[in-house]
Amino acid sequence: MNQAPLLLFDLGGVLIENACFDDLNAMLAQPLDSLAIRERWLASSSIRAFELGQIPAQEFAERFIAEWDIPLTPEAFLTAFISWPRGFYAGARELIASLRQRYRVGCLSNSNALHWAKFGGFQGEFDVTLSSHLIGVIKPDRAAFVRALEECDRPASEVIFFDDSRPNVLMAQSLGIRTFHVDGFQALLPVLQAQGLV
């Protein structure tokens, strides 16, 4: 690499504790296993539209409830939905602050207006913040990673990406981005250490 790499992180399930799949499963008449619920989430038309910023929260709730057959009112569902990302894992903020002293650090997340606002748009947390609902492209689509490289003004060879979703990891790798699959903050730390980044 010609210069220090850009470190690009997914948020939910990497830096932020996310109860999405556990809490969603508890709402379903027939709970799904971990892989099945993740696959159904990625294929969900209502999630995709909301996380691309194409529909407002009320319409999202109505469509999601119908799509997943959830016995809640839209208002009750949205209250639960907002609570799914719990907050930064203990030590995650400090780690990012430390990494920013040596590297440019960004986030690339599939998110939405409600969750983004809950965290204040991550103002001051990263050098670059990329959310699907703001940039109009979504992982694991190739366009999301192409857009991220453009926004960060770096070639793929100078970016290291960390995500907890295998489809996202595989797509990033196909573009030449050095990528690591990490499931949770505790899995991230050993990878950073092994790569000599901390």
Summarize this structure briefly:
This protein is of the alpha/beta class. It has helices spanning 20-27, 34-43, 45-51, 57-68, 74-83, 92-99, 113-118, 132-135, 142-152, 166-174, 185-194; strands at 6-9, 16-18, 85-88, 104-109, 128-131, 159-163, 178-181. It folds into two domains: 6-17 and 87-194, HAD superfamily/HAD-like (Rossmann fold); 20-83, DNA polymerase, domain 1, CATH 1.10.150.
Report on this structure:
The strands form 2 sheets. A 5-stranded parallel β-sheet has the order 5-4-1-6-7. A two-stranded antiparallel ribbon has the order 2-3. It is globular, with a radius of gyration of 17 Å. The chain is 48% helix and 15% strand. With 198 residues, the chain is of the alpha/beta class. Strand 6, helix 10 and strand 7 form a beta-alpha-beta unit. The longest helix has 12 residues, at 57-68. It folds into 2 domains: 6-17 and 87-194, HAD superfamily/HAD-like (Rossmann fold, 3-Layer(aba) Sandwich), CATH 3.40.50; 20-83, Orthogonal Bundle (DNA polymerase, domain 1). 29% of the residues are buried. The mean pLDDT is 96. It contains 11 helices and 7 strands.
